[in-house]
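Figure-free illustration: sequence to structure, shown twice.
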Amino acid sequence: MSASDPQDRIREAIATALDAMGAEGAEVHLERPRDPSHGDLATNVAMTLARTLRRAPRQIAEELAGTIDREAAGVTAVEVAGPGFLNFRLSAGAVAEAIRDAVVQGDAYGRSDEGEGRPIVVEWVSANPTGPLHAGHGRQAALGDAICRLLEWTGWRVHREFYYNDAGRQMERLALSVQARYEQLLGVPVEMPEDGYQGAYVREIAEALRDQVGDRLSGSGGPALDEMRAFAVKILRDEQDRDLQAMRIAFDHFFLESSLYSDGLVDDTVGKLRATGLVYEHEGATWLRTTAFGDDKDRVMLKSDGSATYFLPDVAYHMNKWGRGFEHAINVQGADHHGTVARVRAGLQALGLPEGYPEYVLHQMVRVERDGVEVKFSKRAGSYTTVRDLEEEVGVDVTRYFFLMRKPEAHLVFDLVEAADQSEKNPVFKIQYAHARMHAICRRGEVNPSEISMEGVDLSLLGHELERELVKRLGDFPDLVRKAAELRAPHLLCDYLEQTAGAVNAWYHAGNPTRAPELAVLSDDPGLRAARLALVRGVMVVLANGLEILGISAPERMVREEAESAVD
């Protein structure tokens, strides 16, 4: 928390006034009014405290307006509106102080210690090693990575984990598919399994297998199939890892589902569940009474043949997370996992873990379109668009941003026409152009951005409406990062950066020497020049830091910006 952050100053002033009214510890939310004429920031705290204080909201608001220390809050006016809203108008100095924080703190601006260094494990992607990563995996990859970055920026000690589903029926299907292609390559007339994997990548694996072992595995039984499975899984795991690295995503640990069986964790979990008295036999299967913890029906743990259902290894895996010291855990998964949430949590509660563990962030799938028509252009994968397809088509920056710019629970249409556009119609380029334009100003003025100092700078000179609006947005950044982290919502940062870039570009174009010389950054007035260069540096810091959280580059030069500089 920064003493010069306008929102923090107002919260502290409200808290002091509320303490005197007998409402200690009340939570205060601030937001920007949609209509700027209503002020710079607003709160509904008077309405949320009406029941506690047993008074009318407007009466509470009027008392707060009269008792808040305006100088301490950095405001020129506190106004009561409607049924009890409080609107605040920031002083020019308080608004501009955000620039000082941004310039002084640099790449630390926006960081906080909300997490207090506590460990948290985030598990995401967790794709079956049965084929290339598809667009849905790509959305999850970008989403999970951005959540990790947000958590790190807010003081959490993040452990990144990928759970490989390398056990079960899908692995058998993969092995049988590779076996069929392998035999066909050797001239053996065999058919592909009806439920086999049809993509061209299966033939590629079979070709690599043939090149390595010749016909040694032809016509062999179980051991040969096991060798084929292991060979295919290694190739696909390596490929998935390369695609993720290309997206700038790395993991601390790859956890194998098979290890839950080989290390005895599934058997251990079964034993512990039986000891709870919540396990019973019915129709030859072994059930857990998950309804005792809010599930809509009891769940089968072990089938009649003794094999585990998907539910059981999930419980064992999360017990393992807890045992490794992760009392906070987030799973980023597709919306098709919605049905597993209640049963996994119920199994964990039966073993003594707290309600709500783990936390889930579920996302909807992705539809890739060009001109309104769905695109499935990967011949290798067979019937879907891969992450690599998108990276090769529009680049990593655009791919990541488009996966992040909608809230997770909303369906995402990945518009290839918009994504390929390199103008400001593309939100990624809009933000990057804004950042590059600030560097262009410094190059024209022969100023090293890293040497811009706040010493002796009079920020109150930034009084133009466009400057004031831009500075307010820069001051919103730390609070926005905290909010996006708390809500596990990187799309809020995308919205913020796009709107801020719009304000930056409006100010930049207005200050073009050929249009409005009085707004030019490189003014002949030394004081004004220093203040505006400080604003330029503040913009660079905020846009670069925001893009860093999203895992997107912040270029200092771009083609369009270079063309504009030549014209200027």
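We now fold a second protein in the same way, so the two outputs can be compared directly.
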Amino acid sequence: MKKRKAKQNKPSPIVLPEYYRLTFGILHRDFDEMLQKRYVTDTINFRRTIISEQFDVLSQQDAELQYATLGKLLEKIEEELEKIIRKRPAFYWMHIYRRISPFLANELGGNTNDSTTVTVRNYAEQAILKYASLTQEDGFSLSSKVDFEKILGGMFDASLRKSLKPIIYESYKKHFLNSPPQWVLTDFTENDLANTYAIEGLAYQYWYIGAKMRALGKGVKIIPTSAGDLVEERTSDQNELILSFDARDENYSVNKGLTSNVGTFIPSNTGDANASIFCAFINAGHYTASKLGLKNIDSNFCPNYIPWIINADDYFKAHQYLSKHFQKKFKFGLLEFCQACALCSQLLIASSAKSLEKYLNSDLMFYMKFQRGYTFYGESLEHIVDDILAMIKKLREENSIKESNLEEQIHAIIEFLTLSPIKQSSIGVWSNGPNFVFIPVGNYYFCDYSAWFKLLKNVFFGLRNYDPQSKKGTEFEYSFGKLALDSGFSVVLQSREILCGDKKREVDVAIRLKNNLYLFECRAFERPLNFGIGNISTISARCADLANKLEQVSTLADFISLNKIGSNYDLEWVENIYSAVVSPYTEWIWSTDSFLWTENKKYPRIMSAVEAIEYLKEEGKSILS
């Protein structure tokens, strides 16, 4: 009788998290007190110190003087950020920061919600790209070009040895070394992680100062304390209005559309896959796979970034009236720019149309591609250009792309999308621009998916006298009308001049709900960058403009009420008329006066396009009930 061979205990397959996780976890455990101090205590103390230095000036209760002083404090925080950021290359910081969950410690302050998290992280990354070196290559390497024992300054190897049994350690090490090369940190200590948290902590203090500037712009009284804090003394009306604005602004989901800086709204619409621009958006809401409706993925999987798609064709159509001025400023065409953005973003997701289809059909592959919000592609920008040219050629053969001069202009467009040391000085922290997709990493480039959204939002800043015939007004009326139609509403009048005898009026968009008529005056106009930091004169001028528009649509409602039938319209069925102003943005409402609010107190009579649709939906439910 043959003896059975003894069963050998083979090590289980190694399935470990990304290389940094175990080490970072140990650092958070062993250096928690130090990290908390650098992140929270030190940054709060820095902000309190610079406020205390200006205590006498800030105590004078001169809003304009306070505002100017707070602006100087933003500069001081930037100087402190620069001191830290100069220590390492840009990619070094981004490599760490994109691996830290988008979450703000409650100890930083009273407002650490999702929208604040997005703003703070944007500030931090803008500062990194503005002040860090783009040419230094120290502190990181491809895993195939560094000793295993030197990864994360030796902490990687030490943490594995400490946490794994020897047989598992050896198996994992072999698996890691035989895997495709990846970028890893080399020169690294706990101080580098602490400095990363310090950058975010300072970015939060930057937000804190900016929030007080916005409060000043809204008429709130700011009182400095001897401890170095700034207290908002809001009236009950101001508190109600600010809470309303914040809630409405947070509800303006990026998934519903994009508003460019010229005030043009583009509803979300994937449409033709060839026209899709794949953006990465910070997952500040910590949506897990189950909440995102993803299948065949661990339900607790929570990516730091999630995909958002904008249709390049829709974007071009909405801004086509800018083509001449765009070409003059940038020396390449708007159509070509939109095409390049779409093809480039697709290339970064997958190297070919066939591969892209594979990614789109796999939740796991697609979402993992967005986990960090960036990728590396090829060995140079020329590789990207060559592959885009190959994509264009194929699309031309299939007659799947509009005729353009993209082949001749692609080099200029890629250069525009690429950050360089010379361009760093143009980067603004509070302005969140300009933005770049390709960031140098020594002789390589990392490609930032998260830049697409901000780039498309802000690309038209700097155009002058671009719309003498006010074409963007008509474009916005069309966009809002289409949004209403797509939402199932009956648009009875759009961009129409109505006549009654010798009287005439302009109707932008009119919508029917049973026998109720809803008139919307569409106001498409730029919102200056300094609105975001509460510039007092900017907010005042904007409120005055919107008040005039609201008065205009109110008189239109009166006109139709008295003249329901005209020579080119018939609204005899109308029983009730409601009127409002629609903006591409969430607008600040400056008073609780009933004239500024609908009967449904949740909505003002000056609302964003998305708000207007939500308002109509609630009105529809109310009428049916």
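Summary for the second example: Residues 190-217 form the longest helix (28 residues).
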